[in-house]
């Protein structure tokens, strides 16, 4: 559909075609809005809608014709029997034959016949518009008998009364309604809808079993994307679903193997570099306190800090397990650390504080954001909310902020926006990048916005 829209949008169409295409696009948008978004519901509709359409066609076309045809044939049979009685009465008018005709009609034709004295027929009653019996009998009596008649198909629910005016008498006939129309059509409808219901139930059970492996695969992929452990997942279902599940398992194994190799490499690099830095610090200590050694000591301290930042960024948080953590305690710890550092921090939280996260990673990310904000602003506020299955952590400051066009670059590794921030501040340029990677490892992201305090707002949003 998107390719079709793109194909026509790049061409100027004549008026009728442009009108049709506009209607098509409007209908497509409306259909997309009203259609269910779940795979199970959509697949069920693909099965149910054709069944309903087929049933409707059967009821409208087949049942209407069958009902009308059978009812007309049954009406013809009754009228033929009545015409035979009329013929006998007109050609053999003996009084003693009336009783025999009534007996014959009752026993052989299952009709209740009586001969009444000649009198005016009752006034015509309102004709039921949808009554097939009245229409069929009236048409057949007019064609086959051709005498004045009166029909009552409404008065008695189980019988039809027919009066025909002869030369010297009135023939009154009572027939069962079931003799004049197809009374068993509802059985066909019951069977039709019952079998359709059984098929729909079977389709629902089958679809649920087929879609369950897809749901498990989606849950496993979502959990793995959030950094949570994927327990007891195995490929199952249809062949294509099993292929997708097996591909996910292989992808997870490769990623976990790569993370293990990276962790091992970083552990070796960290050990070797720390050993060298420790040796240098020891040598500076042996040289004594001089202006030159003081500068070299500051350089070593800054190098150690930068090394820790690089290793933290490269290591990530994949080695930490997800566990339920009280964010209120993390906020208190950050507030205490900020107070010790002489940079007051105001915190607040709304909603459930128990959230499944990597505790050390989230604390490191928030610490980076708070430290970064405290470098460039005199007022820092940390707030959090846990609502509608989303955890939002916000750090506001009243510093100079970051221009909107440079915010995307600010979250990249080794990026320092000295034009927007204090150039005297040292750092590795990894604070925002580490916070963003931590947010993304939890299935969320980091957003930089304008702060109500006038500076920068760093907002972490992750699913809870």
TrEMBL record:
<dbReference type="Pfam" id="PF02518">
    <property type="entry name" value="HATPase_c"/>
</dbReference>
<feature type="domain" description="HAMP">
    <location>
        <begin position="208"/>
        <end position="260"/>
    </location>
</feature>
<keyword id="KW-0812">Transmembrane</keyword>
<dbReference type="InterPro" id="IPR005467">
    <property type="entry name" value="His_kinase_dom"/>
</dbReference>
<feature type="domain" description="Histidine kinase">
    <location>
        <begin position="268"/>
        <end position="464"/>
    </location>
</feature>
<dbReference type="Pfam" id="PF00512">
    <property type="entry name" value="HisKA"/>
</dbReference>
<dbReference type="GO" id="GO:0000155">
    <property type="term" value="F:phosphorelay sensor kinase activity"/>
</dbReference>
<keyword id="KW-0067">ATP-binding</keyword>
<keyword id="KW-1133">Transmembrane helix</keyword>
<dbReference type="InterPro" id="IPR036890">
    <property type="entry name" value="HATPase_C_sf"/>
</dbReference>
<keyword id="KW-1003">Cell membrane</keyword>
<keyword id="KW-0418">Kinase</keyword>
<feature type="transmembrane region" description="Helical">
    <location>
        <begin position="186"/>
        <end position="207"/>
    </location>
</feature>
<dbReference type="InterPro" id="IPR003594">
    <property type="entry name" value="HATPase_dom"/>
</dbReference>
<keyword id="KW-0808">Transferase</keyword>
<keyword id="KW-0902">Two-component regulatory system</keyword>
<protein>
    <recommendedName>
        <fullName>histidine kinase</fullName>
        <ecNumber>2.7.13.3</ecNumber>
    </recommendedName>
</protein>
<dbReference type="GO" id="GO:0005886">
    <property type="term" value="C:plasma membrane"/>
</dbReference>
<keyword id="KW-0597">Phosphoprotein</keyword>
<keyword id="KW-0547">Nucleotide-binding</keyword>
<dbReference type="InterPro" id="IPR003660">
    <property type="entry name" value="HAMP_dom"/>
</dbReference>
<feature type="transmembrane region" description="Helical">
    <location>
        <begin position="39"/>
        <end position="63"/>
    </location>
</feature>
<dbReference type="Pfam" id="PF00672">
    <property type="entry name" value="HAMP"/>
</dbReference>
<dbReference type="InterPro" id="IPR004358">
    <property type="entry name" value="Sig_transdc_His_kin-like_C"/>
</dbReference>
<dbReference type="GO" id="GO:0005524">
    <property type="term" value="F:ATP binding"/>
</dbReference>
<dbReference type="InterPro" id="IPR050980">
    <property type="entry name" value="2C_sensor_his_kinase"/>
</dbReference>
<dbReference type="InterPro" id="IPR003661">
    <property type="entry name" value="HisK_dim/P_dom"/>
</dbReference>
<dbReference type="InterPro" id="IPR036097">
    <property type="entry name" value="HisK_dim/P_sf"/>
</dbReference>
<keyword id="KW-0472">Membrane</keyword>
<keyword id="KW-0997">Cell inner membrane</keyword>
């Amino acid at each position: 559909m998107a390719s079709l829209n793109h194909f026509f949008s790049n061409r100027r169409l004549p008026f009728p075609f442009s009108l049709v295409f506009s209607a098509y696009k409007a209908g497509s948008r409306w259909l997309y809005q009203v259609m269910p978004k779940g795979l199970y519901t959509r697949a069920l509709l693909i099965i149910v809608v054709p069944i309903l359409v087929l049933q409707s066609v059967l009821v409208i076309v087949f049942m209407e014709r069958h009902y009308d045809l059978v009812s007309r044939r049954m009406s013809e049979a009754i009228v033929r029997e009545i015409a035979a009685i009329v013929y006998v009465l007109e050609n053999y008018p003996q009084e003693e034959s009336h009783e025999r005709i009534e007996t014959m009609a009752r026993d052989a034709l299952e009709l209740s016949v009586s001969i009444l004295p000649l009198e005016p027929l009752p006034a015509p009653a309102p004709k039921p518009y949808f009554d097939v019996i009245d229409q069929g009998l009236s048409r057949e009596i007019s064609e086959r008998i051709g005498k004045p008649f009166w029909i009552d198909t409404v008065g008695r629910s189980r019988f039809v009364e027919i009066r025909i005016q002869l030369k010297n008498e009135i023939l009154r006939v009572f027939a069962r309604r079931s003799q004049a129309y197809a009374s068993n059509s509802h059985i066909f409808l019951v069977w039709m809808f019952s079998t359709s219901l059984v098929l729909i139930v079977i389709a629902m059970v089958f679809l649920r079993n087929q879609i369950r492996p897809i749901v498990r695969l989606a849950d496993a992929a979502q959990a793995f994307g959030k950094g949570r452990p994927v327990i007891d997942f195995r490929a199952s279902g249809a062949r294509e679903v099993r292929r997708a599940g097996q591909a996910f398992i292989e992808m997870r194994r490769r990623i976990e193997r790569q993370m293990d190799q990276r962790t091992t490499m970083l552990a070796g690099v960290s050990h070797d570099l720390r050993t060298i830095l420790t040796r240098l610090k020891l040598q500076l200590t042996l040289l004594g306190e001089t202006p030159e050694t003081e500068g070299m000591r500051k350089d070593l301290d800054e190098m150690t800090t930068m090394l820790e930042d690089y290793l933290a960024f490269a290591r990530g948080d994949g080695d930490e397990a997800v566990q339920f953590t009280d964010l209120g305690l993390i906020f208190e710890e950050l507030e205490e650390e900020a107070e010790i550092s002489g940079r007051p921090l105001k915190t607040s939280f709304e909603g459930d504080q128990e959230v499944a996260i990597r505790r050390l990673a989230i604390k490191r990310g928030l610490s980076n954001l708070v430290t970064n904000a405290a470098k460039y602003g005199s007022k820092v506020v940390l707030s959090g909310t846990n609502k509608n299955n989303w955890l939002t952590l916000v750090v506001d400051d009243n510093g100079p902020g970051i221009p909107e066009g440079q915010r995307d670059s600010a979250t990249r590794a080794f990026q320092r926006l000295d034009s927007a921030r204090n150039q005297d501040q040292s750092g590795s340029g990894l604070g925002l990048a580490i916070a963003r990677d931590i947010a993304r490892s939890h299935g969320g992201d980091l957003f930089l916005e304008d702060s109500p305090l006038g500076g920068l707002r760093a907002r972490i949003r992750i699913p809870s």
